[in-house]
# Entry
Amino acid sequence: MYLVVLAAFVATAGTVMVKALTAGDGRAPDVGLLEAVYASDAQKVEPLELSPGATFGQILTDAGLDANEQSALLLAFREQASPRRMRAGTEVRLVWQGDREWLSGIEVDINRDETVHLDRSEVGWLSSKEVVVTVTDTVFVAGRIGSILWNSVMDHGDLSEMPASDRARLIHRLDQVFQWQVDFSRQIREGDYYRFAFERHVRPDGSMRDGSLISAELVNEGRSYHAIWFDPNGDGDGTYYDLEGQSVRRAFLKKPLEFRRIASRYTNSRFHPILKRWRAHRGIDYSADTGTPIQATGDGVVVRRNWSDTYGNVIDIRHPNGFITRYAHMSGWGPGIVQGSRVKQGEVIGYVGMTGLAVGPHLHYEMRTSAGPIDPLAIELPAGDPVPTDDWDRWREESADRLAMLLKLPDPETFRAANLETPTARSDN
# Structure
């Protein structure tokens, strides 16, 4: 089943249409030619993929569209979705009439379940959104970790219908939620235990995708950590809290990206591989593949986004608590990131590169206060806000329901007594 949402954008249609359909000798086509062009069945679909740092506007420029037509297309697109939702890897299809004679349509896969269609008409550009209608239920998952959490969840039999990429995102979400309590890559031990509840969306063809993580528990070396979703303002912009109503989130992420290793740490003296001299290194160098997304570690405002001979492509973000974070050597900027942009914690602001003084692809990351630079790995990260006092009664009721979801599953002692290593799951339809 599919749901289609329609919208129309008419502004500047006359100018755009004549410009796009001008004959080769510079004369505007007559009405007969205009009708013939629209009636043409000869179409060529050009598939594209948004590269790291690229924007939708750049795709339109490469397609040969002028500023007026780009403006009309972008306004029509915004009727259905924000261009900022277009990440690296987004699939775009340009629909040409004839042999790239003129552009009649564009299709953008916002995600696997949403496609925005832009179609040229006699009155301008029409936009519509095709949405796959899914059925939502809640899945409860529990397991004892035999080696690593990744294997336990990826090999979960009851999640086999979920695409591997969605299972990987589910694990990544658990990592994000518990990152301030447990380092999944270094602190998980054999015999640790997990249980969590999440929303699952099932498509008409039987495939599924993950949804919101509702509640979770992780027992690491005998210590239990809880994360329960709560939205104080009711606007969808909630977060996770522990059983006492304290935010599990800190003001900053512990790491700004997924990385292979730490190449250089914060130190007062390091031999620079390019300058060939000793000098202070006031940040952390994270080695990662070129194009790896870089996230803002905290909410803030971009106060610098430019080129530096030393840092290459560099961004500075000023945060409400007086901190400034710096991200350097990037290959490109995140969608819509300019000086003055307001960014949220976890938002992609750029991509790993090796611009400036760099010998390999990596991110140079700094934290600063008014007193000067500080070691990002040594600082005690500021705590997030607790549940607001005015919302405490609602929190107590909702958190009890979400904790009860976890209690439907075997606890760690049951797993140990039964020597269970195979994860278990159930769902409520």
Q: What stands out?
A: The chain has three domains: 2-132, 135-250+385-428, 261-374. Confidence is low (pLDDT under 50) at residues 1-40, 420-425.
